[in-house]
Amino acid sequence: MLELKKGHRQKPTNSLFGLRVAGLKVRFVTNTTKESKGFLLNRLNKLGFAIEGSEIFSSLTAARQLIEKKKSNPILLLENEALEDFKGIPTKEGQPNCVVIGLAPSMFTYEVLNTAFRAVLDGATIIAIHKGRYYKRADGLALGPGPFVAALEYATNRTAVTVGKPEKSFFLSAFEDLKVNPEEVVMIGDDVRDDVEGAVKAGLFAILVKTGKYRTGDEEIAISLSAVAVKDFAAAVDHVLSNRR
Fold first, then answer.
1. Which stretch is the leader sequence (predicted)?
2. DSSP H helical segments within 132-205, as ranges?
3. Which of 9, 61, 72, 8 is nearest to 173 (CA)?
4. Which of 68, 145, 168, 178 is the most buried (most CB within 10 A)?
5. By C-alpha distance, which of 218, 200, 201 is closest to 209?
6. Is 154 exposed, middle or buried (0-12, 13-18, 19+ CB in 10 A)?
7. Closest by alpha carbon to 59, among 106, 4, 10?
8. By the 8 A CB rule, do 206 and 187 touch?
9. pLDDT digits (tens, 9 = 90+) for 1-52
């Protein structure tokens, strides 16, 4: 599985082709919550990635599945680009019973968060699409949704339900349709906590790439988790192909 995010600058087209030629199935997993799956797919295809929509598994998808399962009436703290993945979700009149939080900088104002705070006090569940502490923008690292989820948890004394990485259920759901065991799956990503640690806890083998969100010293954490750290995506693919059983 490969991790994808908004702002991804690598173009691993040749390496991706190598995986496909080797007969390996590929899934792209992402905690990106600022844009819908369709928006992400179009952007990546324009960058030269040959990806099918069925190969992308998003934390937005996981959140929608949970909302539908529980027949919730949500408050959606999401950017407009992400709301496409929630089309058809009925927003009934009356008291909301869950607050869904993604990466939505335009929504993280005092008034909006205070509305969410009051809803949780009245019994609404907090659904964190993920608890990423930070992400990488063109101008550097920036706060992720995690700190805002933590603020609501602290203020209400409630614990959020998390659906994205690093949750075990997220990783297992991403390749459920492939009918393979966790130990047969390799996760490649640049976040030592959400990608590597989460994957290892789910029973996958993990490879940390020293690009994107990677920080000096992360490789030591990865190695302590019995994972591997390599230079970039191409090196990760080389490792996968050279260590096939």
1. none
2. 146-156, 168-174, 198-201
3. 61
4. 145
5. 218
6. exposed
7. 4
8. yes
9. 666 554 444 445 678 878 888 999 999 998 888 888 888 899 888 877 778 8
**Which pLDDT does position 10 carry in this prediction?**
47
Q: What is the 3-state secondary structure (H, E, C) of 47-68?
A: CCCCCCHHHEEEHHHHHHHHHH
CA 45/CA 51 separation, integer angstroms: 7
Phi/psi for 31 (5° steps) reads -95, 5
Residue type, 114: N
- Tens digits of per-residue pLDDT, 147-196? 999 999 999 999 999 999 999 999 999 998 899 999 999 999 999 999 99
pTM for the whole thing? 0.76
Cα 117 from Cα 99, distance rounded (Å):
9
**Which two structure tokens, joined as six digits, stand for 240?**
């996968």
* CA 164 to chain CA mean position, Å: 5
